[in-house]
Amino acid sequence: MLLLKKYSKAFELGFQTALEYRLNFAISLVSAAFPILIQTFLWTAIFQASAETVVYGYTFRQMIAYTFLAGLVARIVRTGFEYEIMDDVKTGKFSRFLVQPVGYFQYRLCSFFGNKLPGLSMILGLLVFVLAGLNIFWGVPILFSRILVFLVTIVLAIMLNFLIFYSISAISFWIVEVGFLFEGIRIVIVLLSGGIFPLEVFGERFLQIVNFLPFEYTVSFPINVLNGKTDPPGILLGILVQCLWIVIFLGVSNLLWRVGSRRFVAVGG
Amino acid sequence: MNNVLREIRKHLIIYGLFVKNSVMAQMEYRFNFIGNFSMEAGYLCVKLSYVVVVFRSGVKINGLSPDEILLFIGTFIALTGVYAGVFMINNFGLRTKIKDGDLDIYLTKPVSLQFMATLRQADVTIFSVDAIAGSIIIVIAWRRLGIPVTFVTVGGFIGLIFLSSVVTYSLFLMPQILSFWFMNTSAIAETTDMFWDFNSMPMDIYNRWIQQIGVFVVPIFVITNFPPLFLLHKMPPFYQVWVLLVPLVLFTLARLLWKQGLKSYSSASS
């Protein structure tokens, strides 16, 4: 009970921080709208010029739906705590967690989910509008069962992305000023997860490589569940693979943090 | 005339020193250099993904072949180096300088305050990554399109890149100057920064209304579209006049706005 109370405070803290910087969040949503707009124009021009009705395995409507959903899902799973971890390690604030009866991983996880909540509800609301729009104007079929499964895959995707970036943030123990590197890694991961273009765009060989990586299960997979490109057996398999990657990254992050925290040095009180 | 030339020479020498200092500062923390490089390389991957999309589709987009689009993307990447490595770093720091009263020290220097405050820093890593990658893409597209290498084509293209840089400087500086009147302009800074990405593809992909706004109202499309249009002989006569006029107009506007803004500056020590 005490444990629950302790980490619910971390959740609350994350929630309050997100509310405090809500204008920033609104601006970041606008920033998500810009690439969506550019890509919509690009795909419109490509489909108009193409003699085929299906390009890269997508019809025009599916491609526009993917573009909109990718922009929103990539925003939903996005982290950001890695910079706070870098700061904690650099400034020595991390030492507080070594002496206090608070697990750093649990604290970060609860704070992350708390921080995600206001934005998540806002984006999910937006998603409802986008889905309703796609359904009403373009007749894109949206099944209620698929929305439910999508919500399951999105929670797993958030968890997986948290663990990927929690593992990456352990670099802070080896390199002090690592913010730019985080940004470089983040943008490549967004690309590999299908957060910018559908992965099919890059060809068969690229897809084969990406299939061995965890990233597509954070953006591309939940979208394909929602838009019906993944069949029910594929969905089940995908959810199992998501869970498998979560277990793997739990192990990887644990190992990296155990080794990394031994290098941590703090001076003073 | 001699005085003007002397002033230009003096400012160029000082700018060389600014760049040298920036390189030295970056080299001091070598991992920052690698981190910066990784970040820009990551963004470059995203820009190149647009090239993949265009080439693998193999279609002519609104009359532009994939090779022609490659020329536009190369120009965009090269000019991103100028925008992000030379101007943005100063633009984003300007509001802090105004807010904290850091312009006080610049006011005492015998060089232009605007020059000192808006060009003092340079991120050589970002500039190099984008300028080199962009130049390579431009050369590839140039060869594939069989554009002759003459004094007119090379000189004209470089000249237009210079004019585009002036447009970039003026256009993206003006929103930052608002910091003289409003203390918190971070939202403005971030929003204007996002506009840059509209150039990631040729303006021909947008509808006519957006194209007109992007050329004449907020001339963002002038920056990365006009140099390739010149090489491809697709520049209408009116654009040829506009490309000479717009840097002058925008620079004058930015200068006037700066002078006006400076009147509202309250020094930290007063």
Explain what you see:
- The complex is a heterodimer of chains A (269) and B (270).
- Chain A is 74% helix and 1% strand.
- Chain A has 269 residues and is mainly α.
- Chain A has one domain (2-261).
- In chain A, strands 1-2 form a two-stranded antiparallel ribbon.
- In chain A, helix 1 (2-20) packs across helix 6 (104-138) and helix 7 (144-168) runs parallel beside helix 11 (232-261).
- Chain A is globular and about 70 Å long.
- The two termini of chain A are 31 Å apart.
- With 270 residues, chain B is an all-alpha fold.
- In chain B, 78% of the residues lie in helices and 0% in strands.
- In chain B, helix 3 (66-100) runs parallel beside helix 7 (151-177), helix 3 (66-100) packs antiparallel against helix 10 (220-231) and helix 7 runs parallel beside helix 11.
- Chain B is built from eleven helices and no strands.
- Chain B has one domain.
- The longest helix of chain B has 35 residues, at 66-100.
Question: Topology, please?
Answer:
The complex is a heterodimer of chains A (269) and B (270).
Chain A lengths: L1 H19 L1 H28 L4 E2 L2 E2 H18 L3 H11 L2 H6 L4 H35 L5 H25 L10 H14 L11 H7 L9 H7 L5 H30 L8
Antiparallel strand pairs in A: 1-2
Chain B lengths: L1 H27 L1 H28 L8 H35 L2 H5 L5 H7 L4 H22 L5 H27 L8 H10 L12 H10 L2 H12 L5 H27 L7
Helix pairs in contact in B: 2-3, 2-6, 3-6, 3-7, 3-10, 7-10, 7-11
